[in-house]
Design goal:
The complex is a heterodimer of chains A (471) and B (287).
Chain A lengths: L18 H13 L5 H25 L14 H12 L1 H12 L9 H17 L1 H4 L20 H21 L2 H12 L6 H14 L6 H34 L11 H27 L8 H32 L2 H11 L4 H20 L6 H28 L24 H24 L5 H10 L13
Chain B lengths: L8 H17 L4 H12 L10 H9 L11 E6 L8 H10 L9 E6 L5 E6 L18 E3 L5 E3 L9 H5 L5 E3 L27 E3 L14 H5 L5 E5 L4 E4 L4 E3 H7 L15 E4 L8 H6 L1
Parallel strand pairs in B: 1-11
Antiparallel strand pairs in B: 1-8, 2-3, 4-5, 6-7, 8-9, 9-10
The chains are: A mainly alpha (471), B alpha+beta (287).
Chain lengths: 471, 287
Amino acid sequence: MSNDLLESERVSEPQSHAREDVRAAAMRPVLETPRWWWPSVVVLGVIVALGIVAWMVQVADGLGTAGYSDGAFWAIYEANLVAFIGVSYGGAVVSAILRLTHAGWRAPLTRIAEATALVTLPIGMMFIIPHLGSPQKIWELVWPPYWNLSSPILWDFFAVSTYLLATMVFFYLPLVPDAAIVLERLGDAPADRRTRTRRTLYRVLLGRFGGTPHERAALNGAIGLVAIMIIPMAVSVHSVLSFAFSSSSRPGYMETIFPVYFVVAALYSGVALVVLVIAAVRRLYHLEAFIVPRHFVRLGFVMIAFGAAYLYLTFTEYLVDGYSGTVGAAAWVYQDIAGRYWIPFWFYFVAAGIVPLVIMAVRRFRTTTGVVIASTLVVAALWVKRLVIVIPPATEPLVQSPLAKGGVLAGNWGSYHFTWVPISITVAATAAIPLLLLIVFRFVPILPMAEMEEMAETGEDRDVVSSGEVA
Amino acid sequence: MTKNNETTPSSTVVDDEREELTAAAVTIGRRGLLRAAALGGLGITALGALSETVAAAAQSSTTTPSGPIHQWCMIIDLRLCNGCKLCTTACQTAHYLHEDQTWMNVYTMQNAAGEDYFMPRPCMMCEDPACVPVCPVGANIRTDEGLVLVDQSRCIGTRICMNACPYDARYFNWEQAVPAPRQPFPQEPAWPVPQVKGTVGKCIDCAAMLPSGQLPECVTHCPMGVIYFGDLTSDAAVNGMGATVKVSTFLEENDAVVFKEEYGTHPRVYYIPGHGQDLDNNAAASS
């Protein structure tokens, strides 16, 4: 991404934000409750509660109420599991990859990106529960005598759990010096009960960190180490998740391309969700001085790099399977592009394949609004794409005459029927993302204060900070 | 058939041949590959000690002909099937299944001339089943008599076995199971009646009935004598009409095949395809 491309947003004069400006903006939502906070939390909480009610109905009546049948044994919950864990990758990219590449402009975005990963990953993991036919026996997955180590699902469980732990550590470590700053600020506040509770919280977060140069160096070393470790962990999660599909002989699932395909889709949708969260947070918490249009454009370029890779992988997958000519493989390709699944497939192709590329390629569209529109399309269309990946092969009959009249359309295809139960649960999971973020940012400074101050000292952030760019 | 418990000399020949074929065709089995990837590739062999299932898998991957008395198999003579589906209904009645739970399913297939023929599809009781290694909690069992069964008290309902099975032979309990009266056998893998909501069910070759010399329900209820149930150890099979055949000879003389042989699952259900007789089975049955 050369600066020629970004001509329109050239930095006038490098200058860092004043330390007090950063601190005030980062801690405002922590120190005082915004007026819209409680109403938002209540509304989102009700939506989540309705999703839980829907799940209880499903537990009572069985997975059939969610539209499943033997003709569609995997569908929306499996797609959601992949999609919601996928969007958590944005945190790893924006925070870890940009940290390792010393991209100074990341600074005001890292906390938001890491928080997005922190809340979306458990929500994605949660979809294991409605996915299971007998959720009351889920404890068997953590009961070693029952472990079957040759099962990809067991390894999914191990990989996702490890990744969750790493995500929590990766969120926590940069927070340690910030806890000291918040504690310092709370010292000025009147010592009512609420302030005392908060002080206890930040003291626990702070631990025995004293902020000496030696401790700072050790902390930065630890953050760097976790940033390196979290990338292969993220890759392992979606790779192993894809093995659950591909360790079979089912056409459309049995694809050697699947691990890469899943990882790239996760990175693509992850960056897109981070863009949306950043845009919302910027507006709600008035961070326009710190998060500037250039951030969106740069994230947009990162996003379409993954988007182009994903489009390419999709093309190769469909081309090779379609060309194979075997009944099983050609059948699902045909159903996707011209058969019963053509609407969702082409929706993906246009909304997440072509439009984001056009938006980022044309300078007139390459604005904050343009990138937010592209990201919205990507998040939505990649969820639909996961449905297209999961459902058609699960509905394809494996016992059919190769010689039957009607060729690839022969056989009794199953079908998945969306019902209110999985839709409620999906809406609830979507609402849980802003709900948990609102709660997290009630307690956690929204900008990584210590990190930004440190970068201002070393000048690492100078290529992006410019008050002249405020939109 | 069950009276014929003694191992006849010919059965050892069959077993030896089959072992040779298996060894030559599959140098590394599906289970072996997954285990090598899981244990060797990731270098955590120590965890293996925690898992009973890995040990069990290692034992059952080499069939020991001298151990169990029986090695159950099925022979389906496609020349005779008229597609009446009495096998399906008999199975569903005996196991208290929903109408769409067709453990024994009869597919209408088409030949090159565009004519219909019928193909009953029970569980293939594979020697190297694709469904067993993928279950995270080891709810799939392959008994030493060669039956692949589901422990519904263990099954958590991930349905990854339904994904793995190349024969669509597995059926989930999507809703409340059909209530069943008191059964002669306990609810166990060999007789999963009534079914358990939220778990996978499949053809069991009526495993609980076999020790008392009863044939599976589909075999006894087939009016055409299509389905033979047999034992590879004693090399004998019998159909519902009382016809007894010598398995090795019967398979060889009639050019028997297994379904989706290329997947390396080594099914123990053998099909006898048509031999150029009248292909229109409906007409043949009604005349």
